[in-house]
Amino acid sequence: DAGVIQSPRHEVTEMGQEVTLRCKPISGHNSLFWYRQTMMRGLELLIYFNNNVPIDDSGMPEDRFSAKMPNASFSTLKIQPSEPRDSAVYFCASSDPGPTYNEQFFGPGTRLTVL
Amino acid sequence: AQSVTQLGSHVSVSEGALVLLRCNYSSSVPPYLFWYVQYPNQGLQLLLKYTSAATLVKGINGFEAEFKKSETSFHLTKPSAHMSDAAEYFCAVSGVGGSYIPTFGRGTSLIVHP
Question: What mean pLDDT is reported for chain A?
Answer without folding.
Answer: 93
